[in-house]
Amino acid sequence: MPDIECAQPVRATHRKEHWAAVWSLALGSFASVTTEFLPVGVLPDVARSFGISDGQAGLMMTSPALFAAVAAPGVMIAAGRIDRRRVLIALSVLLLAACLIAAFSRNFAVLLVSRAMVGASLGAFWSLGMAVVGRLVAPAHVHRAAGTIFGGAALAMIVGLPFGTFLASLFSWRGAFIGAGVLASAALIAQIVVLPSLPAQTALRLSGFAAFARRREAQLSLALTLLVFTTHFGAYTYLMPLLIQAGVSGETGTWVLLAYGFCALVANYAAGNYVGRALVPAMLGNIVLLAVVLALLPALDHARVTVLAGVMVWGIAWGALPLCLNVWHRRGPDGETEAAAALFTLATQVAIALGSVLGGVVVDHQSVGADFRYCALIGFVAAALVLRARKRQQRAASAK
Asked: I need a labelling partner for 333 at 20 to 30 A (CA). Which of 7, 285, 324, 370 fits?
């Protein structure tokens, strides 16, 4: 999730219109995240439908992540000086088209094409939406507005994914994608109605990316983001196979996803109250907790109650981390806002692609449990990186 532009708000006659625009972007983030992670809940069903393995079906997560990584900087550059309102609406149209193509796909190749379209939409939408949010409200309320858009993504975890899984249990996995299309339509209509004109402030160029990427703080932030997101999504993509292995499926699996999402939402909300005061301890503690849970979950797959408890703790650990990473990212020196946002999105999406594809290889050639343990190891590496950065900061502070 990208950085935030703290610029002067767009001129408008009513402040309420600005907040309506923020809520339309939050609805867009809800629809985008729901659609991106919808395969997590229907992965085994899609695999059976097309006669492929769970690992191959995991490409449904890899494809959008790869295209999102390219779209985040690519669309920002291609947009030039086009009004950002027009670009955001076009991206929502693309998301709607992707949902419909997925719902009516007749082979797995067409489904992957639709997933690539999802990636192109969400990568640019996240980067651009979070970059312009500071232009929609007064400077004092920028973080609240950004939190609203973050909340759309968090809500997708607690409502969107379980709802998609529920629709799949009623109408098949195709019905889940139709449901995602309904969400995309609602977001599109809202943005057409309430988004104000957002003229481009500058035309983003490659030099802006290079200038930001050369900073040591940016390199650390992006490396940490890559490791943490790989840890999470390398395992999260294959959560349903683990639950099925533990004897949890169907309606019960939907409730497990709901419990996970609720815990993640609560953790995300709570993190907003302490992350500014204790960023490093919050970051370190949640990364370690995430790694420990992933390491232990495979050993608990013989007992459904303990798996449920483990998944809920997983939700608590992960729920705070995107906000922690975003705050860490914004602590670096000021630079090209849109470039910083795009590179952050690029790092998250590359990590999702890397985690899902490597996880698929491990799942197919070893086991789901092995995948979770490898992801836990990556998490411990991320924790070590945070510790190293903390010691470097302490030495720099004592030297002054």
From this structure: 285
